[in-house]
Predict the 3D structure of the following.
Amino acid sequence: MKFALNFPGGKTIEGPSGLGDGTLKFIPESKSVLSTIVSGLIPIFFVIALLLVLIKFIAGGFGYMTSAGDSKKVEKAQADLTQAIVGFLVVFTSFWLIQLVQTILGLNIL
């Protein structure tokens, strides 16, 4: 069986032949205890991380509303909001990357 990658513009790259039935999945025969624990903890870590981001975002918004024009309080609130947004982007990107790796390798993590 031959594999080919078709690119826009009509370019095609032929892959190697003789790879079996075309399924390229890396599924171990039996799961180890460590992999079971890690795959069980990953969703919990995401929930905890998103809760912390939400708390930081709410704290920054509350600090900004109650700053009453004090420049130090406004700067602290803006820093909290910036940290919350960056934290959300980090969590979202890591979740997306795990989903991508899971799809490519045929794993079932999340």
